Amino acid sequence: MNYDVIIIGAGPAGIFTAIEMIKCGTNKKILIIEKGRAIENRSCPKHKTGRCMNCKPYCHITTGFSGAGAFSDGKLSLSPEVGGDLPDLIGEALAEETIAYADKIYLEFGADTKVEGIGNNEAVKKIRKRAIQAGLKLVDCPIRHLGTEKAQEIYYAIEQYLLKKGVEMMFSTECEDLILDSGKCLGVRIKTKDGIVELKAPHTVVATGRRGADWLEKICYEHNIAHQPGTVDIGVRVEVRNEIMETVNNVLYESKLIGYPAPFKNKVRTFCQNPGGFVSQENYDNDLAVVNGHSYKELKSQNTNLAILCSHNFSEPFNQPIAYAQKIGELTNMLGDGKILVQRFGDILDGKRTWEKELSRSNIKPTLPDAVAGDITAAMPYRAMINIINFIQAVDHVVPGFASTETLLYSPELKFYSNKVKLDKDFNTNVEGLHCLGDSSGWTRGLMMASVMGVLMGRKLK
Ligand SMILES: Cc1cc2nc3c(=O)[nH]c(=O)nc-3n(C[C@H](O)[C@H](O)[C@H](O)COP(=O)(O)OP(=O)(O)OC[C@H]3O[C@@H](n4cnc5c(N)ncnc54)[C@H](O)[C@@H]3O)c2cc1C
Is 33 touching ligand 1 by the criterion CB < 6 Å? Predict the structure, then answer.
């Protein structure tokens, strides 16, 4: 079977490649291969069971049409300063321009017209002043919030649009390997119930997201696709009462703070803030349970959660950041008997574990009820833990009460960013006909930047 373009992965990067090719008037034959299901068939059983069922063969939260986007909080960060390193590759001006363009596409498919985090200049100034006093940088980032339930509607409309325009989609189909010959990519090998099938195309786009990071790393080694070890972020999900975050939530919706706390001076940042949101558990294919957070447009909790992440890079002799973070995750899971661990900030400072009965004495009620009270410091590397503690104390200057005794820290919060595939400005790898996009390329880390990379790829392949 022959196509003009084969896209592996139906996340925002893959989807926006196809959308933009169609918008440019292409008549090329496009195939999207997706190991998960169509969006209307994706559902997380946790809604019914109240706990993560560790679905096999894959987690419906991160797999299927729209990728990790459909069930994500759907916060579109409208700033080139957020969402990965793509501006270093394509230039800040093009990144900014394409963000505005991709944002219009989301609006066309029904996104909320309201943008959070703009206006309120006086209030923002006050927050920034406190951030400066605490040695933190406040990043300006307007946010369009789709909301978990609305994001599914928007991506469903996109799925139907692509099908109507003749894009072929194979769901529940996993790409096993690439077909390479003399430095050229000729297509892909997919796993079907009848065995391995070969599909050919002059252009293959790998857009397999963070879940495909391990697979892509293997493929890169096997086929000499030029890449370099990526960054890995290790941290915690912090949860506080809405009252604590009220000012920041109202003025900015999401406070993007960056610091380099002593003594290590590593980059530490806030990420994915969810006012009135819920802490959630995600399970990777290798049974690793990691913590995340999201918020609904309508359903609100009493709490706000956000991640605090420390970036880790390795060079010699060790260069496997993903394996390093996985080991930390496994150790934390072991201590929590396979569940997410939660600990009060005050207990960390007092050098003691948190007990279940102590959680019920607080103002805050955990929104992840199956998290297990314990000691996250028993698994967190010293450097990361000190970075997190010192950063939380700095944030307390900006948000008084953030470093309270009862503040909850969930672990492991790990962000695997894939190895960074070496790309030119047209997203060509060193293998002819092979392109790599989105989170799996190591160049993006969010819905908007993955979409932007897709738009630009679509223009090249039209
Ligand atoms: C719970 C959660 C909340 C999030 N919230 C936000 C947010 O609010 N804002 C934000 O900007 N970002 C958020 N993110 C991150 C965001 O979803 C990702 O950055 C974005 O989806 C990346 O897009 P992508 O297209 O590169 O990859 P993905 O969306 O991960 O899509 C990749 C697709 O490829 C498929 N795939 C992988 N391997 C194969 C294979 N071998 N064969 C076939 N198919 C394959 C996967 O099933 C998946 O559907 C969140 C992520 C999660 C998990």
Answer: yes
